[in-house]
Structure formats: C-alpha cells, structure tokens
Design the sequence.
C-alpha cells in the first residue's frame, strides 16, 4: 500500500508529450554546394552541367543559383513550394520554355535572372505570382514578342527591367507606362522603329533609359525628357537627372529633333543618317538652324468623279514633304472621315466609299499635314441616280469594226464606237486624249511656256478597276505621249504634271498641267462570227453522224449479201443459186436472158462448162447470154 502513493507522487513529474523534432534538411543535390547550417539557406549550382532543375532542392532555400548549365525548360513542379526564395539565377542556360505558373509560388522573390537563354516570347502567365519582384533581367535572349499582361503582377514593384539584346520590333507601351517605380529601363540592341509620344510620361522615377542601336529615325518629345538638360551638370552634382542613350540609330535630322539638339551634349557618339545633306555628320556638330522640315505639297489628287448611287468610289490624294505628311479627309458636311461601315481611309491617302449615296455628293477636302505645316486640295464627287436594271439573259451583237481591234481611231472618223476624252474641269482643257482604241491612247498637252525651268513631264494614270497609279516620265520637249499598256473596256483617270526647279527655293517642284478621263474600247468581235462552243459541238455531232451512217451502210451490205446467197453464209452456196440481174451467164449466144428461174433439183450433168461473164450495168449495156 505504501508503493501506490509513491507512484502517484511521481506521475506529475513525467512530461505530458515529447517536444517537436526539427525538420530534416533535404540532401544537397549532386555537384552543388548548399549552405544549410545558418540562415539564409542557399543552394549554389553554377556550372554543374545540369540538364534540368534538381528535384531534391531544399524548399526552404532563400537563394538558388543555377547559372551556366544546360537547363532547357522550367517546369511547373521545379520550383513549387519555395515560398521563401528571394534570389533566383537561371542565367546562361538553354531555356526555351517556361511553363505557365512556373514561378507562381515564389511570392517573396526579389530578383529573377533569365538572361543569356533562348526565350522567343513571354506570355501573360509565365511571370504570374511574382508580386514582390524588384529586378527582372531578360537580356540576350531571342524575344520577339512580349505580351501586354506579362508584367501585370510585378508592375507596381519592379525597379529594373532589362530587355536589351533581343529581337523586339514592338513593345506593349501601355504596360511599360504603368511601371511607376522603375529606375532603369534597357531597350537597347533591339529592332524598335518607333516610340509613341508620351510612352514614358508616367515613369517619374526613371533614371536611365537606354535605346541604343535600334531602328529609330526620330524620338518624340516627352514630359519625362524635361530633366535632360541637367545632363550638362559637372561631375559630383546630384544624380537626379535622366540619362538618355540613343546612339547607333538611323536618326533623321530634321525639325522634329530640334528639342534633342538643344541639349548641347558632347559625351555621346550619335550621328545623322539622313537627309543626304546631313548624312554621316556628328549629331551635336550640326547647327540648330540645319534641322529643318519641308511643308507638304499635294502632288496628285483625283479629278472630279461622277458615279451612280449605290456604286463604290475611290478618292485619292498624294503629298510629299519632310517628314512624310499624314493625309486625312473631310466630308462635304465638314466631318473628319475615318474607317467606318461605309468608308475606309488608307495610309497612302486613298479614301474609299464602299456604297455611295446622293448625300455623299459635294466637295471633299484632302488635308496633308506634317510638323512643318499642311496643304489642302479639293476633290469633287457627283453622285447620280442609280443605273437602270439590266436583263440577265439579254444578248447583243457588237457591230463590226474596220481595221484591227487595237488600231487608233481618230475622233473625226464616222464610227459608232469612237469616243472623245472627257475632260474633268474647264481648267484642265489643256490635256486631251485625242485618239484611243482598245489598248492604246494618245495624250496631248500644250507647251507650258509660263513655267520656267521645266525638267520633264510626269504622266500618272490608273483605271477604274485598279487603285495602283502608273507613272511615266516624259522629256521636257515632248507635248504628246502614246500609252500602249492599257486594258480594253475600262475607264482611266489621267493627269499630266510639269516637274520644274523652283527659282525661289532651289528645290524640285511640280505643277499640274491638266487631267482627263477617257474610256478604252472593248475588244469587239464581228457579228455572226461562230462561237467556239457552237463550232466544237457541231464538229462532234457531224463526226458522230458519219460514224453512225457508216455502221448502218455496213449492216445493210451484210444483209444484202446474206439475201443474195439465199440465206446461207457466203462460203456455202446452194447447188443451183439464182443468178443476179446484173450479171449474165453466156456460152457464146447473144439471146437476152434477164433472169433464169431456178430449175428443179436434179443431179449435176457431167462435163458441163459454165462461163460467167460480168459486164457493167449502165447505158448501152444490157444483160445478155444463154445457157448451153
């Protein structure tokens, strides 16, 4: 009994449960060095010859270095559950593919190095989950596409973005404009040809922008660049200014780059690529007064156009200038026209009305504008009543023409198909198409004495079925030209321009001489000419009839022979066969015997000689003969 109280006293001294044991660390991957004795844990595998991410990683690691290996892909499970990882380096591998969500568990990651790989694109799901990412290095890949939502999860935290040495022709500029905390942006050594205005206006913390060695011909001014004049500060001054690097681009040094030239920098090696007068010159050595632009000049506009209601109409306007002018159209009602359900505006200055209505008639205004100014031109469109409906099965016979189909027909010839060229306005009476046929037309214009220094004439034309203009350069001493490459049955709009040297500016300019519209003759056929299908069908029927007739004659001959031989085949004649009326049996006598009836059957006589003489049946020949 004394033992029991002693045991009851000792029970409270026993522990209620055993303390938790520390987790067993994962083994260090082969050829790697692991720091697991103290925090932070790190796994270092540079240049270990790895073909994939080691599966036996310590998931508690804060640093993982896998650079200079042969890893070709990052799979979804490779980095799963590594929620404490802060730094990940996959530089200089052969990575071509990153699975969507491969970094989804790395919510604490601060730096990701993927440079020196073979990535060709970056989609929206490949960087998902990197909500604390600060540094993203993607240089020296083969990136040709960057999705608009690829940086959404790290847009508010990203400080350094390096996209240099890739194949990017376009960028999601809207997405880049949301990187409010970015300090360094590397876009150098890509294929960028343009930057939209205001692309960097919201990047208030940007300290360095590198656009070296792209295809930029101009750099638009941006509110961000207001800090650029601070670049001239001496060394040791506060580094609050923006560093802009843009050398190695084919810069077009005109008035659009005056703002950049006014920085008066002397520490870069930028050079002008164009215009020809400034090509190859050091950018900062070109005077500000040499950065000039040329205002636009309208070189071609459509002549007055008349179409029936419901038909399409194409209005054209061409302009030249430096920089290249942008062409816009204004309707007769004063509205700026663009792409809609009934109209399409093309970058080359063509306005196409898909279906015209009577309200579309009037004066359309073509506006060509650039940084140096603008020029306008008027184009008149007349919309008439719709054409009358035509019978679908109607047939017509074209009247015959004298001479060859492509022969030129003078307007004085009394031909129903001759047409006089329609001039487009009273001011364009100087250009006339005096002779035209199916594929040729003779264009004439008067001598342009009021225009001094004419170098040449330019003829430009196109047909109603083709939007492409055709140009012809004519010597200055010519006043006519024969076009021989026309298509039959089409309407052509043609204009003649005088190319001359402007004595005031010393530049080459153009002045319209006049325009005309004419129609080529259709390729006619003589009335009554046989149609190829009809002729072919007739020949087939004729040949079939000859074959059928030949077969019938052959059958008739066989039947006659069968009847002549008494119903027996030709080799098995009867003992006494009837004699045909066209042949006579003779033994020297001359008595007429037109026919001999078959005798009664009897035994043949011995030594009987029968001579058969056949003479032609005809006039003067009568059947004669007798049996001996």
Sequence:
């Amino acid at each position: 009994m004394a033992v029991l109280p002693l045991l009851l006293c000792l029970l409270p001294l026993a522990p209620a449960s055993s303390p938790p044991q520390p987790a067993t660390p994962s083994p260090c991957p082969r050829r790697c060095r692991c720091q697991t004795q103290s925090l932070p844990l790190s796994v270092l595998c540079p240049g270990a010859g790895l073909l994939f991410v080691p599966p036996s990683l310590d998931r508690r690691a804060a640093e993982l270095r896998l650079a200079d290996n042969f890893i070709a892909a990052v799979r979804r499970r490779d980095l799963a559950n590594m929620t404490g990882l802060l730094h990940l380096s996959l530089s200089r591998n052969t990575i071509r593919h990153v699975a969507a969500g491969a970094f989804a568990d790395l919510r604490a990651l601060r730096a990701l190095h993927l440079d020196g790989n073979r990535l060709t694109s970056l989609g929206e799901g490949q960087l998902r989950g990197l909500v604390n990412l600060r540094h993203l290095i993607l240089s020296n890949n083969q990136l040709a596409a960057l999705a608009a939502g690829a940086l959404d999860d790290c847009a508010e935290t990203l400080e350094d973005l390096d996209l240099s040495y890739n194949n990017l022709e376009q960028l999601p500029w809207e997405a880049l404009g949301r990187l409010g905390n970015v300090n360094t942006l590397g876009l150098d050594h890509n294929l960028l040809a343009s930057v939209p205005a205001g692309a960097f206006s919201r990047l208030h913390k940007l300290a360095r922008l590198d656009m070296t060695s792209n295809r930029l011909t101009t750099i638009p001014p941006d509110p961000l660049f207001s800090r650029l004049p601070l670049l001239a500060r001496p060394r040791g001054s506060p580094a609050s200014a923006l560093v802009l690097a843009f050398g190695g681009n084919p810069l077009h040094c005109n008035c659009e780059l005056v703002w950049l030239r006014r920085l008066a920098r002397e520490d870069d090696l930028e050079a002008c690529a164009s215009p020809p007068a400034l090509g190859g010159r050091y950018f900062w050595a070109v005077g500000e007064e040499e950065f000039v632009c040329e205002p636009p000049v309208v070189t071609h506009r459509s002549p007055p156009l008349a179409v029936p209601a419901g038909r399409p109409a194409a209005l054209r306007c061409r302009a030249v200038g430096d920089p290249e002018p942008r062409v816009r159209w204004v309707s007769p009602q004063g509205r700026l026209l663009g792409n809609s359900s009934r109209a399409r505006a093309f970058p080359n200055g063509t306005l196409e009305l898909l279906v015209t209505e009577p309200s579309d008639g009037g004066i359309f205004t073509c506006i060509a504008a650039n940084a140096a100014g603008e020029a306008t031109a008027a184009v008149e469109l007349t919309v008439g009543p719709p054409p009358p409906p035509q019978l679908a099965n109607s047939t017509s016979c074209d009247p015959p023409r004298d001479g060859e189909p492509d022969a030129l027909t003078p307007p004085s010839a009394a031909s129903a198909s001759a047409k006089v060229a329609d001039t487009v306005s009273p001011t364009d009476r100087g250009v006339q198409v005096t002779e035209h046929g199916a594929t040729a037309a003779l264009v004439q214009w008067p001598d342009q004495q009021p225009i001094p220094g004419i170098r040449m004439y330019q003829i430009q034309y196109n047909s109603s079925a083709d939007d492409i203009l055709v140009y012809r350069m004519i010597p200055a001493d010519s006043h006519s030209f024969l076009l021989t490459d026309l298509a039959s049955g089409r309407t052509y709009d043609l204009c003649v321009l005088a190319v001359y040297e402007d004595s005031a500016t010393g530049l080459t300019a153009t002045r319209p001489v006049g325009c005309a519209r004419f129609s080529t003759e259709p390729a006619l056929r003589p009335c009554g000419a046989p149609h190829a299908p009809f002729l072919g069908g007739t020949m087939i029927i004729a040949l079939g009839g000859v074959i059928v007739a030949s077969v019938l004659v052959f059958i008739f001959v066989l039947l006659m022979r069968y009847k002549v031989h008494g119903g027996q085949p030709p080799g098995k004649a009867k003992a006494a066969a009837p004699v045909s009326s066209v042949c006579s049996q003779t033994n020297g006598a001359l008595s007429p015997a037109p026919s001999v009836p078959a005798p009664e059957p009897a035994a043949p006589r011995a030594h009987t000689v029968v001579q058969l003489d056949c003479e032609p049946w005809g006039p003067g020949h009568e059947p004669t003969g007798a049996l001996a």
Summary: The two ends are 177 Å apart (CA to CA). The chain is about 10% helix and 25% strand. Residues 39 and 563 are 126 Å apart (CA to CA).
